[in-house]
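Researcher: Next entry in the queue.
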Amino acid sequence: MSAREEILRRVDRATPARPAAEVAAAYARIDRGYLRRHHDDAVLDLFAERVADYRATVLRVPASDVPGTVAELLAARPGPYGVPSDLPGEWISASDASFVRDPSVAALDGLAGAVTGCAAAIAETGTIVLDHGAGQGPRALSLVPDRHLIIVLAGQVAPDVPEALERLDPLRPLTFVSGPSATSDIELSRVEGVHGPRTLEVLVVQ
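Model: Structure for this entry, 206 residues:
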């Protein structure tokens, strides 16, 4: 038994499982009287504006232009780029860049960047959520390479946080991306690329 397994075993003993019906009843009693939606119109406009506020590059294109736009974005630096094995092939079909499907953890640091899809996006906060399911790859793929190109479908953009969360499975590993990685020291000097990609590009497919 590993140390991790031993810790989890002790946690399970200290917090016995509650019956599913009891958990469901407790969940149903939570007060949800808050305003669920602040925006009904121009949701994609708001999303693009908020993402750009985080110093990310945002482009809006029709589905037919995705391959060509991806090719243009990646042309300045030919790669290699890490991509999930189940990323839609047509998205990168026009690019001359080299791609590594499902790169190993050891290979991530040598990549020029990563290209992924997402699970959902939030217009109000300019946030993109990855649950590392189809077309997204493991969490490390979105955190280690210095550049991340995320392709967001218009239907994945929710107006506000509550609606976006309802689309997500809380049991999956969720990564919330709000702009490129950035932090500030005590003197408020901004440093980018410390905890994740220095460059974030978002392609919104309308």
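Model: The chain has six helices and twelve strands.
Researcher: Noted, moving on.
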